[in-house]
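Structure ticket #2291
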Amino acid sequence: MVTLAGEVVGRYERFSLYNSPYSAHDRGRAVDLYPGENGGPAPSPVAGEVLDTRTVRCPPKAYAVDEDHLILVDCGDVVARILHVDPGVEAGDEVAVGESLGTLVRSGFFGQWVDDHLHVGFRDPDQNPYRASGSLPLALGVDVAGVAWDGRGTVVETGPTHALLDAPVSNRAGFVALASDEGVPLDGGLAHYGGGGTLAPHDGPVSLLGTEVGTATGGDVAWHDVGVWANDHRATGLSLFASRVAFGAKLVFHEGHQFEAGDDVRVRIDATGEPIRLG
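Resolution: structure written out below.
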């Protein structure tokens, strides 16, 4: 188990362990850290010696760059594996926590609704650090509070494939996440990715807005076949994450939507025989 200290995680505005379709995030073994500025500096979450940088091709997306990058950092007992940064460092460089590794890139591995972030996982020194899967179990040294929501809100931001609501509102200090009906903070893509997670201990059924949406086992959640509707329009899903800045529910529409800022929205979740799954 590798623990990323709370003082490190607290340098970033948001994080997610599960909100991804890629195997690297299985069982929450990698974290996406969001500094808050798209295309901005990429503050390092680790200290150590840069072992290697590597450039890889991205899936072609009109809104994204053609190439992504991998940075490997020797942290002593483990090797950090960091993606989605155009490197400003090279092999042999020493980096400190908070020092910029380069510039965040809008990767073709992202959905269009996804903000720029660093993807971080850890390997034993004798493991292959270039493979996408196989990272060590990961814990974050922060507490996340759950924020209750009744499914209502007003659109405050839109993009081609998302709509951000002004609710739920949190006045808590520190990280918060959307709470299940049981009060458990949730993480992941509900239910457009196959699974998600809880950011506090919980085992058993997980419900949201009055509908059972999954089953939690050891922090991992297997989503049921459910769908998300906004004012009776089918959404792709809800993007779930932890944030320490202004909070609100984020609706995803991977094929576009008609919502505008100022629109009042009521979200519901129902069982469906036709769940939307991406990736």
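Closing remark: The chain has two domains: 2-140, 144-271.
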